[in-house]
Specification:
It is a single chain. Helix content is 44%, strand content 17%. It has helices spanning 7-20, 28-35, 39-47, 50-58, 60-67, 70-79, 85-96, 103-118, 180-194, 222-231, 252-261, 269-284, 296-304, 392-407, 410-423, 428-441, 447-454, 461-476, 494-502; strands spanning 136-149, 152-163, 169-174, 200-203, 210-214, 217-220, 234-237, 265-266, 322-326, 332-335, 338-341, 350-356, 359-364, 370-375, 383-384. It has 512 residues and is of the alpha/beta class.
Length: 512
């Protein structure tokens, strides 16, 4: 039911149920003629549970809140018809947190849904699971002919992956017709790009997924089915020749053709790949989405990433030798006489490097997540940068400043940060990391002490450490210092630190 119900409507329902008398009274046709209602309306009202109707009249918001998750509940019941209401409630709670209704309300709501889903009289369109994060990904293969690459018209093949909740998109490219192995490899790329695995992926009946359909029984592509089973996601193939049953997250293939590829001329395959990656990152995943009203990347990071299951590439994905490289302090790695950028969060870390076709994939060694991809450069001595990799530096500084403010107070924290910035502007981020850790280690810090330190010119993380340790020692000696404790004179090593930084040594960084 889609919301509140008037008492007048309830009276009509009561009349219908009384005339029908559980099948012993008038037929649906006779009731329709008696009350001047359509037979479909009569059938709909007969399926309604009286207890649920009464409960809705008393508190319409209860069932309304459950209606917000109706698609997900229908999805569960279609996949697993014998699921108990208790387990359904548990699954819903795992996805959305606090449940929006009482256990009794959920039991009644699920009972009615089970009857409706089992009813042969109603055609159910597959729900788009856009209200529950981490459940569904929609996958659409496509192709575009006449793409100018190197002065020749070529056919470009691609697969669009869209997470139904956040609308985060990934587009895998191929320069020849898709076969099963390529289809699997593009899935592997997409899931590593997402950094995790949804519960299921939804497909039209492409031969890459479904070999045959007869009597609504599907014969799956055995190699792809093996991959999906090993990876840990369900294959949801739509009914043949029925695009309505797939739902409409968005016309992903059409969007890629018109917004990304149409009107473009490419030098070579590497140029196509780089253009596609830039478009996905700077257009598709940062636009304000027409349905959600939010940028997909922002919605994904806030609400969906944590709900994805861990993903490891199965053995059936053709392995490619992976090497490791050290990221330098400017966020670059060396690869075959060129340098390639990685996000600043991995500055001076060791990362995995995987060359696949004309692409270079850089991954986090701990999680396996792809953190950067570049089109391989055939020249030598070049620096290939993605400007987006350098944009998170300011965001991380802001986050560190906010962390310090949270440990003391906004006003005092702001003054302390400004003193650190004036004293060591070139290593401000490192100073913030050290100050945050010191404040955590010595928490709770005396408000008068930290206020005085925030006003002291020339304040650095080292001097902050000395003052905090001196104050802590005074407390341990069970005497409160009458004035600001003066620390032991520490040797000023800033000149040596700067010398070390110029040689790339002795620089500390916030852990990723």
């Amino acid at each position: 039911m889609a919301g509140g119900m008037s008492v007048k409507e309830w009276v009509v329902i009561h009349k219908i149920k009384a005339l029908h008398d559980n099948g012993k009274g008038l037929s649906i046709r006779a009731i329709s003629q008696e009350l001047g209602l359509s037979r479909n309306t009569v059938r709909k009202y007969l399926r309604m549970d009286e207890n649920v109707i009464s409960e809705q009249i008393e508190d319409p918001s209860r069932t309304k809140r459950l209606d917000d998750h109706r698609d997900y509940l229908v999805h569960l019941l279609k996949q697993f018809p014998k699921l108990s209401a208790v387990k359904i409630a548990r699954k819903l709670q795992a996805k959305v947190g606090d449940l929006p209704a009482s256990d009794r309300s959920i039991r009644r709501y699920v009972r009615v849904l089970k009857e409706e889903v089992a009813s042969a009289q109603m055609r159910y369109y597959e729900p788009i699971l856009e209200d529950v994060p981490g459940v569904q990904c929609q996958v659409d293969p496509g192709e575009l002919r006449g793409v100018l690459i190197g002065g020749e018209e070529r056919t470009l093949h691609f697969v669009v992956f869209v997470l139904s909740y956040s609308r985060l998109m990934y587009v895998g490219l191929a320069f020849r017709p898709l076969d099963t192995q390529t289809f699997i490899q593009l899935h592997d790329e997409a899931l590593r790009y997402f950094g995790g695995l949804p519960d299921e992926s939804v497909y039209d009946q492409t031969k890459l997924v479904v070999i045959n359909e007869q009597y609504r029984e599907l014969t799956l592509n055995q190699r792809f089915h093996e991959y999906a089973t090993t990876a840990g996601f369900r294959i949801h193939a739509c009914e043949g020749y029925d695009p309505e049953s797939k739902g409409k997250v968005e016309a992903g293939v059409k969007y890629v053709k018109q917004d990304c590829l149409y009107g473009e001329v490419f030098r070579d395959q590497e140029h196509v790949r780089q253009h596609m990656q830039d478009w996905v990152e700077s257009v598709a995943n940062v636009r304000i989405h027409g349905t959600t009203g939010e940028p997909p990347r922002e919605r994904f990071e806030r609400d969906e990433r944590e709900h994805l299951e861990a993903y490891l590439s199965p053995a059936c994905v053709q392995p490619v030798a992976r090497e490791t490289r050290q990221v330098d302090k400017t966020g670059l790695i060396a690869w075959k006489a060129n340098k390639y950028s990685v996000p600043m969060a991995w500055q001076q870390a060791r990362v995995g490097v995987l060359e696949s076709g004309s692409q270079l994939h850089i991954s986090d060694l701990n999680t396996g997540e792809v953190i950067a991809s570049h089109a391989l450069c055939a020249d030598k001595g070049k620096v290939i940068k993605n400007t987006h990799h350098y944009r998170d530096h300011a965001q991380r500084v802001n986050k560190l400043e906010a962390g310090i403010n949270a440990l003391i107070s906004d006003e005092t924290g702001h003054r302390l940060c400004q003193q650190l910035k004036r004293s060591e502007p070139k290593i401000y981020k490192d100073q913030l990391v050290a100050a945050r850790d010191l404040l955590k280690r010595h928490a709770p810090v005396d408000p008068e002490l930290i206020t005085a330190l925030a006003e002291r010119p020339g304040m650095t993380a080292t001097r902050l450490q000395n003052y905090l340790e001196a104050a802590q020692a005074a407390v341990l000696r069970e005497r409160q210092p009458e004035s600001l404790p003066e620390p032991k004179q520490a040797l000023d090593l800033s000149a040596y630190q700067r010398l070390g930084r110029s040689s790339g040594q002795g620089v500390t960084h916030e852990p990723a």
